[in-house]
Amino acid sequence: MLLPYNSPLSFVTISQQRSEIRTGSKGTRLGSRRFVGKMNNNTELINQYKDAFPAFGGYMECMSRTLLTGLSSFCLAFGGTYITQHLTSKYLPYGRKNHIIVSSLIACAVAYKVTSIRAEACQAGCHFKNAILNHTRSFTTSKSMLKKKKKATKRMTPPPEDTDEDFEKSILEDPDFSNLREGMEDLNIRKYLSGSVSHIGTIVLQPWVKWGPKMKRNTTAQLMLEEAATLVSTLPGVKVVAKEVVPVKSLDGKMIFGSGTLARLISEARTTRTAVSVFISVDMLKRSQIEELEAAFGMKVWDRYSVVLGIFQHNAHTREAKLQVALAELPYIRKRLPGERERMMIMEREKRIRNALNRLAGKRALIRRGRTRSNLPTVAVVGYTNSGKTSLIRSITGDESVEGKNSLFATLDVTAHGGRLPCGLEVAFIDTVGFIQDIPTELVASFRATLEDAVCADVVIHVRDASHPDYELQGITVHETLSSLPLSEETPVITVANKADLTLVKPKDEFGEHMLSATTGQGIPEFLDYLQEVVLKVTGRRSWRFSLPTGSPEIQWLRNVAGIVSEEMDPENLQPLGVAITCLLSLFSLPFRLCHLSSFLLICLSSTFSTVPFALLPLLRISSSVLSRHVQTAPSRYSLLLPLYLPSYLF
Ligand SMILES: Nc1nc2c(ncn2[C@@H]2O[C@H](COP(=O)(O)OP(=O)(O)OP(=O)(O)O)[C@@H](O)[C@H]2O)c(=O)[nH]1
Ligand SMILES: [Mg+2]
């Protein structure tokens, strides 16, 4: 049950790991904005200072409560003193006229004391919270932080020092090596494309092994052709002008295709005027095959390796991604340049790139250790390319800096995004590079380092595209790739069927997975409940039950740093001060006018603690005072008041 913020003593059940209190930064959506609102707009102020002082919101609330408590204590002290003076007036050395002055002085002193004590507690709590929240702030993804630190803020990889930067630059811009790969135009697809003025017309040929162990059983030739066409058209400027499935006996033939088929393909290609390249959708062609095919077609010939490499080159923005692409092309170059000198050069380059990547990996591991120390659970989101991983992360975390793109391999950099589970627990969601079928293992291997973060995650979410006709094969490809990674057997892998808003490949009830849609948000709340269950279990968190004073700094702090599952009122432990004062007031047979004063005081009290019993008391008190006007004798007055007061304590 969720109660108002300042309810009386309440049970707070939080999820917690062992005896340590979990920490995490607060929301992720609010960025600091240029201040344009009114000065008394607290929300605006909180938003503005959220980045610099994460606990500022809590501080403002705490201070408002302090102010209210001070006001209430002033009223209570004033009323209490006034009543006491009124009752003991004949023993007092001063007259009735001075009662108000004395009451005011005492009320001021009490209110000052109460306010200063609460303000100190509030500030201490907020400094502590600030320190903790600042500690984990590297995972918040607010816009202003993005602006300040640009892309580096959320990247798992911190910006390396200049020396590393120079080192990486020297590798990426090595002139000797650039000369070496200059002749290999299939490796320089991107350069080739950027030099072209018009569309690059491409013919897509999908070889299809008709029988034998290499025959694909979980897909169809047509689906593979469609994917090949999508893959090549992901390259900027490339336009598919013709596509065809070509049945072959095996993929190891000298020219892949039989002589009759090849002759037909060549004549067809030559008649297609706009065609300037042929994409043969096999993982990697041999050097001799490429040379002979290029000579036969009189056009550029590309395989999946060179196309994927071209896409990677286009989408790699960070230095780490660029280094990984540089590493990925080495096996390809090695197969093309068998000479001893070239082999030595490639070896030397590989050593240098690995060295640079290891440095970055070291920093990445440092960040990972920091995350482990701060006990931030991590959830890696993996899946086939274009299945909606990035969109799902955006939908869960509300992080507007990431956006899904209808393009293959749009995400090449592993990034972390802070989000919260329904219980409030902060979790880092890790976006990863998508998988694809028929991709040389060397190419995957070069990106393995970035997948380390996925391997070390507490939970893995496997996102599948429920609307894709090749749904089954995509699932198998991801499973195969995941099993090649050193993923612990204990790491839970939750599979979700995304894009549930589109036409599904099979009836809804045949999906064993969680059905959801990252764009419409359908199914996400149910999925998050399940994810929460898994995360709490796998990270060894458990629920604790505390009884804490309502509105206390402790509760506020717990709200910020731990996942509060539920809050409820403790029926056996009402606020002792409030109860004592109410009893005191009810026991006195007060003159009518003071009855109204006591009601006013109770209203102040109830505004501070805002609970049902305290809110009812003033009403009961007023009604009792009205009734008391008609009751003459004292005993009957008490007998009337008590039944009226008693029910209020039973809530
Ligand atoms: N209709 C619909 N479209 C979706 C949904 N989820 C993602 N998409 C779209 O699918 C496309 C790919 O989404 P991304 O989130 O970029 O997919 P990804 O898995 O991160 O892709 P890569 O990073 O390229 O591997 C985008 O155009 C999204 O708008 C969904 O639930 N419904
Ligand atoms: Mg993505």
UniProtKB/TrEMBL annotation:
**InterPro entries the record matches:** G_HFLX_dom, GTP-bd, GTPase_HflX, GTPase_HflX_N, GTPase_HflX_N_sf, P-loop_NTPase, Tmem141, Tmem141_sf
Alphabetized UniProt keyword annotations: GTP-binding, Magnesium, Metal-binding, Nucleotide-binding
Q: What Gene Ontology cellular component terms go with this record?
A: cytoplasm
Q: Specify the superkingdom.
A: Eukaryota
- Pfam families assigned to the protein according to its UniProt record, in alphabetical order: GTP-bdg_N (PF13167), MMR_HSR1 (PF01926), TMEM141 (PF15110)
Q: Tell me, what is one Gene Ontology molecular-function annotation carried by this entry?
A: GTP binding
Q: Which CDD domains match?
A: HflX (cd01878)
Protein name in UniProt:
Putative GTP-binding protein 6
Native source organism of the sequence:
Penaeus vannamei (Whiteleg shrimp)
